[in-house]
């Protein structure tokens, strides 16, 4: 079998791939990656991208690949050939776990383990120094996979209950006949259940991914300011979902359950997500001048 000829000096040396059989080696590697990638991505697309929880997946995939292409010229100069033993050890851990997740069809684990194995393959080709140059695109692309169900349950349960409580208190102040128990809300003759889709996790994940992309593109040169903006993502997402829940309660009370749970239910989610994203942009415009003035004072 043809092999990829390499000139390698290990993790601390310069690695360059060459030789007359290098093209065959690259083709074999590409075919292997595609055969490894396609089944899992088909599973992820079928199970999550078709619903609200994974609607941001295609956006993250294409923008993440664009980021990799954009950052590659800087990373290319840092390419090295890592020790083979390290690569084999990492794959020996990840591949059996991936096979287990594939057999049991645990989509969250399968996606992350597949991605982890692909990162090891990338590491074997370009080395750790080049991957550190690509840290954000590689981290950002992980958002194409759904969060584990255990995380979903841990986050959404208290969030659903708190959103229900605050929404009931808010509408009670305006005289609406509303009450509740846990995640159940009673208004008039209607009973509503604050589901995970309404509780904020989906929009938190989506808003975090898109906001991180925006912040990195615009402010990657100032990591401290970028970190400040990141702190606003969670409060903005929760506030947007509070108004979404209130809107759906009012639609149910005034227009009926069929109206609130139909097209307007999904439209309210999309609209509130757009509003939350616009708020992040607006906060950036408001805070950035103050940050720059403060920085100039510190430098004077």
Write structural notes for this entry:
- The chain has 300 residues and is mainly α.
- The protein folds into two domains: 5-144, no CATH class; 149-299, no CATH class.
- Helices cover 74% and strands 6% of the residues.
- It is built from twelve helices and five strands.
- It has helices spanning 22-49, 57-76, 84-104, 107-133, 135-140, 149-172, 196-199, 201-219, 223-230, 233-255, 257-260, 263-299; strands spanning 5-7, 16-18, 178-181, 184-187, 190-193.
- The chain has a three-stranded antiparallel sheet. Strands 1-2 form a two-stranded antiparallel sheet.
- Strand 1 and strand 2 form a beta hairpin.
- Helix 8 (201-219) packs parallel to helix 12 and helix 10 packs antiparallel against helix 12.
- The longest helix has 37 residues, at 263-299.
- The radius of gyration is 24 Å and the shape is globular.
């Amino acid at each position: 079998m043809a092999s990829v000829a390499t000139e390698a000096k290990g993790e601390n040396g310069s690695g360059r791939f060459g030789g007359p059989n290098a093209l065959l080696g690259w083709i074999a590697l590409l075919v292997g990656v595609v055969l490894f990638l396609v089944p899992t991505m088909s599973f992820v697309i079928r199970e999550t991208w078709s619903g609200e929880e994974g609607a941001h997946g295609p956006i993250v995939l294409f923008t993440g690949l664009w980021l990799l292409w954009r950052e590659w010229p800087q990373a290319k100069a840092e390419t090295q050939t890592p020790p083979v033993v390290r690569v084999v050890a990492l794959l020996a851990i990840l591949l059996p776990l991936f096979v287990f997740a594939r057999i049991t069809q645990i989509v969250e684990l399968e996606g992350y383990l597949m991605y982890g194995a692909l990162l090891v393959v990338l590491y074997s080709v370009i080395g750790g120094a080049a991957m550190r140059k690509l840290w954000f695109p590689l981290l950002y692309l992980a958002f194409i996979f759904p969060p584990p169900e255990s995380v979903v349950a841990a986050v959404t349960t208290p969030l659903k209950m708190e959103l229900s409580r605050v929404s009931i208190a808010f509408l009670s102040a305006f005289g609406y006949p509303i009450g509740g128990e846990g995640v159940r809300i009673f208004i008039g003759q209607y009973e509503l259940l604050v589901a995970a889709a309404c509780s904020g996790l989906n929009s938190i994940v989506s808003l975090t991914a898109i906001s991180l992309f925006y912040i990195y593109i615009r402010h990657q040169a100032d990591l401290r300011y970028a970190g400040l903006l990141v702190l606003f993502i969670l409060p903005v997402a929760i506030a947007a979902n509070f108004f979404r829940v209130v809107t759906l309660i009012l639609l149910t009370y005034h227009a009926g359950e069929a109206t609130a749970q139909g097209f307007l239910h999904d439209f309210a989610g999309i609209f509130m997500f757009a509003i939350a994203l616009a708020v992040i942009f607006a906060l950036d415009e408001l805070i950035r001048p103050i940050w720059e003035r403060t920085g100039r004072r510190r430098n004077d």
